[in-house]
Design brief:
394 residues, alpha/beta, 4-stranded mixed sheet, 13 helices, 17 strands, 37% helix, globular
Length: 394
Amino acid sequence: MITTEEIIEISDKYTFNTYSRYKIVAARAQDGYIIDKNGKKYLDFTAGIAVNSLGYDDKGLKNALKAQIDKILHCSNLYYNEPQALLARELCSLGGLSAGLDGTTHFQRAFFCNSGAEANEGALKLARLRAGKGRGNFISFKNSFHGRTTGALALTGQTKYQQGFEPLIGEVRFAEFNNFESVAAAIDNSVCAIFLEPIQGEGGVNPAERGFLEAIRKLCDEKNIALIFDEVQTGIGRTGKFFAYENFGVKPDIITLAKGLGGGVPIGAILARGEFAEVFKPTTHGTTFGGSPLACTAGLYITKKVAQPDFLANVRKMSEYFKSQLQSHSSGLKGQGLLLGLEVEGKPADYVRKALEKGLLILGAGENVLRFAPPLTITKAQIDEGIKILKEII
């Protein structure tokens, strides 16, 4: 039988050196735990970086995927498929009804792709196409993260990810997050969209202020600029609402989704409303694998389950309990729902490594923040187990 060491050696030899990996090989998973090839269990407070919405052992999701595999895995977008149509309707319906912001469906159309970066690339194209020639510039924010493809990278407000890839496409002006004056100062007639995360995840778990988002929404309306929310990490129940924007009462024109939408199956999505929903036409955008029957089956199951009021109420309940336990160890607690950040002294990577040694998986964010994004199905007992380890390392 192949050993952990042999797998690591083969991977290091034959895959690009793009990741700083920890020396464990994930073999299987159960409930909220990952189990490595040697049989050691790790309590997962990362959920695959906010991906495994229902943990690893939801029988309904597994059965839905198995049933779809027996029907058809993939067909091209030259043809219709049922799971794609049903998921599009479900997400568009939730956009207004779940938010309670008005009595109408918020989003009118969806486009499916394979990842968050791909969704953000599509949103970038959509905003430019709608604005027309001469209005191709964007406003993004310092400490933001939107992906590693060239367009998404251009929108990312962290130079460490951009070094070596210049010149990046187009013109992106970076404003200060939660500083409306810096946004207003960057506006001119060349700007087609403002692109932002309601909570900056990788940048340090930094939530937007409600007044800041309200002011931006008003500015976009006045200047005929698209407001795009990157909810790749914050969407699909992560903040205790199905979409994070519901917490702020501010409606974007375009929203991007991925990560938790598939519960572990790769899928991304763009949702748009009003005139933005009518911009794309045949040949303006497309994908081979986006919206496949298998991925959309996962997305439809996840969406229906997470959108249930009782499910979201439990996410908020577990969030409050999690926060109450963390607050006794640090005053630097931030975030919403089950996307939480804890400020620490020193480098986050040191804490991540120590937690790993004790059987707990956590994430770093920004310069001095530990990030927690566990499965939305986490229990009090699992929170207590993780807190006990955090007490030992903080």
